[in-house]
Amino acid sequence: MSSLGNKFVLPAKFAGSETTVWEEFIQLAIENKPLNLGQGFPDFAAPQHVTKALADIVTGENVLLQQYTRGYGHPRLVAVLSKLYSKLVSREINPHNEVIVTAGAYEALYNSILGHVTSGDEVILIEPFFDCYEPMVKLAGGTPVYIPLRPTKTSGTILSSDWKLDPEELAGKFNKNTKAIILNTPHNPLGKVFTVEELNTIADLCKKWNVLCISDEVYEWLVFKPYKHVRICTLPGMWERTISIGSGGKTFSVTGWKTGWAYGPAELLRNLFIVHQNSINSCNTPTQEAIAQGLELELGRFGQPGCYLQSLAVELEKKRDFAAKFLREVGMIPVIPEGGYFMIADWSPLAGKVKLEQETDKYMDYRFAKWMTKNIKLQGIPPSAFYCTEHKNLAENYIRYCFIKKDENLQKAEDILKKWIGGYGKL
Ligand SMILES: Cc1ncc(COP(=O)(O)O)c(C=O)c1O
């Protein structure tokens, strides 16, 4: 035994959060070199005006852009964010105290949760949920309360809008200890874009029980026609109880830049400022400046054909349709997303083709995802990672694929699957 003894064991507040699906599947990808439709990022170039802006910033004459900037957000970035969102939510947003820039949307979530949730608080998580919500709530001392979206249709074409919350079940999750609900629209992994009626149901309960809504809207620009992204903070009585979260990485296809933000009323944002100044303190200056320049340009051509905020979804819709088609052709049952860049598909019709007994995981979706990565060389993510232990069984028949990939890579995915199925693949 080491001379350190037990003094440095992991603090109990992290119990149960030791591993993530990402750690496991990134390692699996390194070892097996599959075609990776697992992690959520584009494999094609970001808009040139944004990457060029960053190159110019780091090699340019303004040496101060290589130094610390304002802790709560680089002035040029908070200025354009307040301008953009003031327009989108039809109210004046103060760039100084109603916007904060964070190390990705991830940190905005962390600050919202750590800044508002404390022991004894309950936080409602809608399943499937982006997996970091749960450990963050636990770290804050809160208790997650889970409610699954359930498919309301079992045959024919299934859309992500067919996955719904039961309003009565939802109402039953709220009580005097409820501090917050975390909403994600457009949704990862379902691609569901919550309708205004669904958002009103959530909003009414938030108002009834005086509950904070943390609204994760990182895929706000990735919505397919005819669906519309509705910001819950724009519903009556919701501005004062909503923190809305966005991501520069998702907006401009530069996920590695890890630059995100939150906006909302100063009273709620203040707690996020305090978590931020006592942890991260200030985010890196060059990416903030580049994203600011990028947003200024897009704001200037908002609503016009070249605007990236709107054109990426048009490109992506074709990729969605392509992926849905080949998943269907090989026998899976895709759930057609209305937004975002993920699609889940029911793989159970292919159960006879996979040797799940070769894997040892408890949940079948993990076995399927691993077996496919190792043997067929196509990687997806097991969606039970986005459920609490008691509900993981609800996701066992599904796999999540990311379709924001080059057409040639989506074609490769089709070829891999069809060759495996014994169809008409081109390999
Ligand atoms: C729903 C959701 N929220 C937040 C994030 C994190 O965003 P960022 O990369 O800006 O930290 C992601 C990333 O995949 C996500 O899917």
From TrEMBL:
Reaction catalysis annotation: an S-substituted L-cysteine + H2O = a thiol + pyruvate + NH4(+)
Pathway(s): Amino-acid degradation; L-kynurenine degradation; kynurenate from L-kynurenine: step 1/2
Alphabetical UniProt keywords: Acetylation, Aminotransferase, Lyase, Pyridoxal phosphate, Transferase
GO molecular function, one term: cysteine-S-conjugate beta-lyase activity
Database matches in InterPro entries: Aminotransferase_I/II_large (IPR004839), Kynurenine-oxoglutarate_AT (IPR051326), PyrdxlP-dep_Trfase (IPR015424), PyrdxlP-dep_Trfase_major (IPR015421), PyrdxlP-dep_Trfase_small (IPR015422)
KW Acetylation (keyword) present: yes
Coiled coil stretches, renumbered: none
Aminotransferase class I/classII large domain residues: 34-413
Keyword Lyase: yes
GO biological process: kynurenine metabolic process
Description of how the protein assembles with itself and partners: Homodimer.
Family that this chain belongs to: Belongs to the class-I pyridoxal-phosphate-dependent aminotransferase family.
Identification of the protein by name: Aminotransferase class I/classII large domain-containing protein
Species of origin: Ranatra chinensis
